[in-house]
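A favour, since you know our structure tokens better than I do. Would you make up a two-line entry for one protein for me to read? Write everything out right here, beneath this request.
=====
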Amino acid sequence: MKKFGAKKYVILALTAVLAVSFLIVSFADGTTPGSTGDPIVTQSYVTKIAEQLRSYFDNSLSNVYQDITKLNTSITTNTEAVNNLKTQLDAKSQEIEALKAQLKNTTAATYEVILVKKGKTLVAGQGTEIIVRSGKCTAIATANGGLADATAGKDLKTDEAVEFNHLLISSRNDGRGLKVLEDSYMIVRGAYTLK
């Protein structure tokens, strides 16, 4: 029986040591539940904090939605501006194409050798240059004057004979030009009409 009694004391001693150890460990941080270090939380406190968090997130989301609305407005405005600029660019491109077509139709940049048959009339446009190379021609003048003979330094009057290889310039588009009496080769730069 002594053996059984000794075991009993050992078990009892171990249990006591474990209980004391458990108590020491649980109170080691020095806080007691419900104290200032570890307060008990009430339902009203939790509700109050939850409302504050909800209000904070609602305000944050509201600000984000306002920013998104501003960005959408800005995108719409910028898209309209880009579309307006694109329309203006298209209009300018059409103007450029029209000017290119006009330049293509204008022969002012190069001289053109032409044969004008007897009995025809060459009516020169403004700024047109003419050099008669062969044949026989007379000048056609208007009330504003005739062709300028830049080589001779004079203004040609109606029915005045045109000399070969003289540079003739039409200062206006008013009907002035040349009447062809014999088939004539001419060098022309600029707009003209044959009648």
About this structure: Residues 112-194 form a domain with the Jelly Rolls fold (CATH 2.60.120). The radius of gyration is 54 Å. The chain has a mean pLDDT of 86.
